[in-house]
Write a sequence for this structure.
């Protein structure tokens, strides 16, 4: 079984949670950016998280949100990790950790077009970096050959689906793959596409697969 973990992002309906619980990806994502078609309110996310299988971590996706808002969602348990897609800097990350008053997992997202973008991402003080084609949700891949020597834990996002994820795993060797539009039909999560994606990732050979669980 593949050692790569799976994140299915943009869940916003109870049917999405039901499908995720059946497949048990390691992570799912709630999008709190209000301009996103996958936006969920904190109250809706809390109801969805309550129905989520306990072994699945919930990631909150934010774009330049007030740091207190992110900290409150972490402290309340609505999310287990924060994924930052805006212009958040090291001071923001430090403030978020201070406000939570406890260890919290922070993922920082970066757009990758050149090797210099990868180098900039590698310098992040976040616990994990996410490398994407665009600002998030574009549904487009980028040049995975740029990721040969990332040298730290990273999430690969951007245009992944059941048909191309095996090639992505072979070329980029990510720790986590992140899918959203690639498992949708008509703008909503498609359980059959979710299942096909999870199967493709888990079928990828890796004799040294790390234990499933925390990011």
């Amino acid at each position: 079984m593949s050692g790569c973990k799976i994140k299915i992002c943009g869940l916003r309906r109870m049917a999405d949670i039901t499908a995720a619980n059946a497949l048990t990806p390691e992570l799912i994502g709630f999008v709190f950016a209000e301009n996103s078609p996958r936006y969920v309110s904190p109250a809706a996310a809390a109801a969805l998280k309550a129905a989520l299988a306990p072994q699945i971590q919930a990631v909150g996706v934010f774009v330049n949100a007030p740091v207190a808002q992110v900290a409150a969602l972490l402290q309340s348990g609505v999310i287990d990790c924060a994924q930052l897609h805006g212009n958040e800097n090291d001071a923001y990350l430090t403030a978020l950790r201070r406000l939570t008053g406890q260890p919290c997992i922070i993922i920082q997202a970066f757009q990758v077009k050149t090797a210099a973008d990868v180098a900039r991402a590698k310098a992040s003080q976040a616990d994990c970096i996410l490398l994407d084609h665009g600002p998030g949700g574009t549904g487009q891949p980028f040049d995975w050959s740029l990721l040969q020597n990332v040298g730290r834990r990273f999430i690969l996002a951007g245009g992944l689906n059941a048909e191309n994820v095996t090639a992505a795993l072979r070329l980029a060797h990510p720790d986590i793959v992140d899918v959203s539009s690639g498992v949708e039909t008509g703008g909503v999560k498609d359980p059959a596409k979710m299942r096909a994606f999870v199967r493709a990732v888990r079928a990828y050979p890796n004799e040294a697969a790390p234990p499933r669980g925390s990011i």
